Amino acid sequence: MAVVNVYERYFEASCEYNGVPRKAALVMLTADSCEGNIRYSAGVTFFPHRDEEDYAVSYDAFFERTLFEGKGRRSKKREQAFLTDFQTAIDELAAEQNAEVFWDKPMREERRG
User: Fold this and answer.
1) What total of structural domains would you count in the chain?
2) pTM for this prediction
């Protein structure tokens, strides 16, 4: 089994989870492949970000949605299509927690794998 972070980026955010205010989020698109099957997921984790150096991600506020699961392997074309709908999936996950990701306020450069 191989899990690859296709895309990830930190953004400013607003969330309160388990009584802890969260001011940042790490959003990610992952690909998980095993024995000829592939699963793509959108995920977001909200964390406190108490100062400019605090990127200690809290895994208690992690939410994920499967975008695709089936036979196949990684495809750049498929991944680009998922990235087109990625923001909507993350916004829906955030809304379920009364949270918000501020897409116009990235905190670091994106990373692609």
Assistant:
1) 1
2) 0.89
Q: Say yes or no to pLDDT of 1 above 60.
A: no
C-alpha span between 44 and 14 (Å, rounded)? 12
**Is residue 97 in some structural domain?**
yes
Domain span including residue 64: 2-107
Q: Rg (Cα) of the chain, in Å, rounded?
A: 14
DSSP 1: -
Non-local (6+) Cβ contacts of 61 within 8 A are 15, 17, 18, 20, 22, 45, 46, 47, 97
Per-residue DSSP letters for 48-109? Answer: ---STT-----GGGEEEEEEEEEE----HHHHHHHHHHHHHHHHHHHHTTT-EEEEEEESS-
What is the DSSP annotation of 7-62? EEEEEEEEEEETTEEEEEEEEEEEEEEETTEEEEEEEEEEE---STT-----GGGE
State whether residue 110 is helix, strand or coil. coil
Segment of 43-57, 70-84, 90-104 carrying the highest mean pLDDT: 90-104
